[in-house]
From TrEMBL:
Domain of life: Bacteria
Official protein name in the record: Aldehyde dehydrogenase (NAD+)
SUPFAM superfamilies membership: ALDH-like
CDD domains the record matches: ALDH_KGSADH-YcbD
PROSITE patterns the record matches: ALDEHYDE_DEHYDR_CYS, ALDEHYDE_DEHYDR_GLU
Pfam families reported in the protein's UniProt record: Aldedh (PF00171)
The Aldehyde dehydrogenase domain, residue ranges: 19-485
Length: 489
């Protein structure tokens, strides 16, 4: 008889073009949050020595990679995109098994990874500088851009394909080499993405992946003298420590962290449209997006009809294993995440908010082995409450009633984050005031707070980011350094 351990694949680190076991000889089991007894794969629990090897490989590969033309680097990315595209179904299925989002969402995310790779492949043929008139009429002055060198990429579990790809692809196209540390929670999916780079023939050492714990490998990347820039997405607490560690040794860093994103629904809004966007923005991916809608600020005149429609829709949502066709919302990605969400729900009740629906783990035989939580709606939430201030990262909506647009914007801005915000109204004056006054890097009108587009800058204000932007052409700002050149005959 074969045991599950024998059947389950072990995924290795990818260092200098080879799949290698961690020097520690330690493994972690990556489990399915829809069924905690199912092991998706075993992943490496690496140590500092493994990281050192990866950094050394990335350093050795750097000059050769940098010296290729942008077009040639782009050709590699096109190949990676084609391979990822062919493996969409398999990789999406792994993602669903490993972190719980529904299969259509996982397929959409993988397709987004393909599109991001193609976008940055094309970037290898676009301009990287400007001619600036010199005060010396005989001279030519221009800017050009050079890679940082070796870039460390630290990513979370909520978008295990899209986030690594939107960091690794621009890093590579601008001539950097990469040391990638995926979230241990989703390291199997990450390994499959890196297999696409390996299969595309990206030269040895250009992309390296080291699996392991955040405090060891993630912190190790931030602190490593051989790493020239660090790009991070995850929690505010860890992000800030990554930034401080990188800053202390003079390395460049980029942080994308939390959100507490509001949707404002004004009296003239199309209520059905606003309800749908609140549900999709707040509850898709089980609320585990930094752009997820968390606070729902509704004008008094439409508060009751909006609430009724919202509750009716929330009560229809089918919770279950993301691989099943009829499932609308999967489990939380991990037990830790489930505990966090339940803790916030408890806190909401304790602090006096009214629970309108949800609030607990769902009943049912089919769900008892997974990290499920019901979609939850609170009302009578005020800005001083914990659930109105802290990022929950779960399917929890907080309804808040206001009397005017001014009050709505004031409430919307009354948090430490400023990632995404949306408004539902037909009044152009209100739309313009919102665009002007809201503290958010992503401002969305009559649309959900989530749903970023790969060709546009992405990032937040206040504590949501290091004030930098990712994606689109904005990525060039982090992944390159500018040289100003002055030439005289
Ligand atoms: N902005 C966003 O998109 C995200 C926000 N979050 C927020 O963070 C909360 C906690 O989630 P969690 O997964 O713990 O997020 P973390 O911030 O801990 O994880 C993000 C990444 O950082 C790594 N990491 C952990 N500790 C360190 C460290 N000391 N130094 C460097 N890297 C480190 C993690 O590794 P590993 O996990 O493998 O140990 C992971 O790869 C969520 O509830 C949510 O509020 C979470 C994910 C994404
Ligand atoms: O809304 C999206 O599509 C992206 C969200 C995101 O970047 C995140 O949750 O980390």
């Amino acid at each position: 008889m074969t045991t599950q351990a024998q059947q389950t694949v072990t995924y290795r680190n990818y260092v200098n073009g080879e799949w290698v076991a961690a020097s520690t000889q330690q493994l972690d089991a990556s489990i399915n949050p829809a069924n905690k007894s199912e092991i998706v794969g075993y992943v490496q629990k690496s140590g500092k020595e493994d990281l050192d090897r990866a950094v050394q490989a990335a350093k050795s590969a750097q000059i050769g990679w940098r010296k290729l033309s942008g077009a040639t680097r782009g050709d590699y990315l096109y190949k990676v995109a084609d391979i990822l595209e062919k493996r969409t179904d398999e990789i999406a299925e792994t993602m669903t098994r490993e972190m719980g989002k529904t299969l259509p969402e996982a397929k959409g995310e993988t397709a987004r990874g393909v599109a991001i790779l193609r976008y940055y492949a094309g970037e290898g043929m676009r301009e990287i500088g400007n001619v600036i008139p010199s005060t010396d009429s005989e001279a030519l002055m221009f800017t050009t851009r050079v890679p940082l060198g070796v870039v460390g990429v630290i990513t979370p579990w909520n978008f295990p394909v899209a986030i690594p790809v939107w960091k690794i692809a621009p890093a590579l196209i601008y001539g950097n080499t990469v040391v990638f540390k995926p979230a241990q929670e989703t390291a199997v999916t990450a390994a499959k993405v890196i297999q696409c780079f390996a299969e595309a023939g990206v030269p040895a050492g250009v992309v390296n992946m080291v699996m392991g714990d955040g405090p060891v490998i993630g912190h190790g990347i931030a602190a490593h003298p051989g790493i020239d820039g660090v790009t991070f997405t995850g929690s505010e607490q860890v992000g800030k420590s990554v930034g401080q560690t990188a800053l202390a040794r003079g390395a460049k860093y980029q942080l994308e962290m939390g959100g507490k994103n509001p949707v404002i629904v004004l009296a003239d809004a199309d209520l059905d449209q606003a309800v749908e966007a609140t549900i999709i923005g707040g509850l898709r991916s089980t609320g585990q997006k930094c752009t997820a809608t968390s606070r729902v600020i509704v004008e008094r005149a439409v508060y009751e009809p909006f609430k009724e429609k919202l509750l009716a829709r929330v009560n229809e949502l089918k919770i279950g294993d993301g691989r099943e066709k009829e499932t609308w919302m999967g489990p939380c990605a991990s037990e830790k995440q489930l505990r966090t969400v339940l803790h916030y729900i408890e806190k909401g009740v304790e602090e006096g908010a009214t629970l309108l629906c949800g609030g607990k783990q769902p009943d049912g035989e089919a769900l008892k082995n997974g990290f499920y939580v019901e979609p939850t709606v609170f009302e009578h939430v005020n800005s001083g409450m914990t659930i109105a201030q802290e990022e929950i990262f779960g399917p929890v909506l907080a309804l808040m009633k206001v009397d005017s647009l001014e009050e709505a914007i004031e409430l919307a801005n009354d948090v430490e984050y400023g990632l995404s915000a949306s408004i539902f109204t037909k009044n152009i004056g209100h739309i313009l005031a919102f665009i002007q006054d809201i503290d958010a890097g992503l401002v969305r009108i009559n649309a959900e707070t989530a749903g970023v587009e790969l060709q546009a800058p992405f990032g937040g204000m206040k504590q949501s980011s290091s004030h930098s932007r990712e994606q689109g052409r904005a990525a060039i700002e982090f992944f390159t350094a500018v040289k100003t050149v002055f030439i005289k005959p």
